[in-house]
Predict the structure of Geranylgeranylglyceryl phosphate synthase.
Amino acid sequence: MSNPWADWDHIVKLDPDKTLVEGETFEDVCETGTDALEIGGTLDMTQEKMQRVIDACAKYEVPLYQEPSNPAVVVEDDDLDGYLVPVVLNAGAVSWITGAHKEWVRMDDVEWERTTTEAYIIMNPDASVAELTEADCDQSPEEVAAYAEVAEQMFGQEIVYVEYSGTFGDPEVVGAAADALDEAALFYGGGIHDYESANTMAQHADTVVVGDLVHDEGCEAVRETVEGAKDAKKTAAESV
Ligand SMILES: CC(C)=CCC/C(C)=C/CC/C(C)=C/CC/C(C)=C/COP(=O)(O)OP(=O)(O)O
Ligand SMILES: O=P(O)(O)OC[C@@H](O)CO
Ligand SMILES: [Mg+2]
């Protein structure tokens, strides 16, 4: 798989278990200016719910990726541009590092040319994803940087994902991860809710991921985060 995310500043992550704001459509989401859609969540995922969102987004231009939270929810669909499959580096339960993946490969004919892993470092202990994976979220900036380096240099990961799902994280942690990476892309997600929060994290991360906001506040709020992320990239480009 080539890496289209090299051009992504902003992703909207759609949770198939949540609804859009009343009166809004997936077309509105696609028109926020986001660079890609990732479909996934931790709790109560099913293939049917995933499929519904894929079908609703298929006809728009924005690249569409599934982020499966377990092998049973993977949807085979040509409308998807690909699969971004988490590997949780700081999981307490080894299943989320390799076990689920082993089962997936055993069960399915994985389309490797459309599949890339995301090396997650989970940092918010209150997130469902932290509970599920029994993640050890007590990590200093130096430790997160070390995880990022391990991901890229030892495990050849193309994407490292600093995940604060549900809360705005520490920019110092994200900056440390960014400094540790050479070629790998750094995704940041968690608590981005306005221009400023998107702008701050996009100064460190290559790509910011916006989740809850689209479901809770809607597309106008998401559009502001797109602007915040894009402005951070513009400013960085101007200063070199
Ligand atoms: C091998 C395959 C196909 C899948 C396994 C993939 C793995 C390791 C998943 C574990 C981590 C996980 C559940 C990632 C899903 C994406 C994610 C982090 C969503 C954020 O979820 P939360 O915001 O915590 O959950 P809710 O919004 O559902 O509460
Ligand atoms: O829902 P939020 O807090 O925006 O987090 C986005 C994403 O990183 C979740 O996997
Ligand atoms: Mg969530």
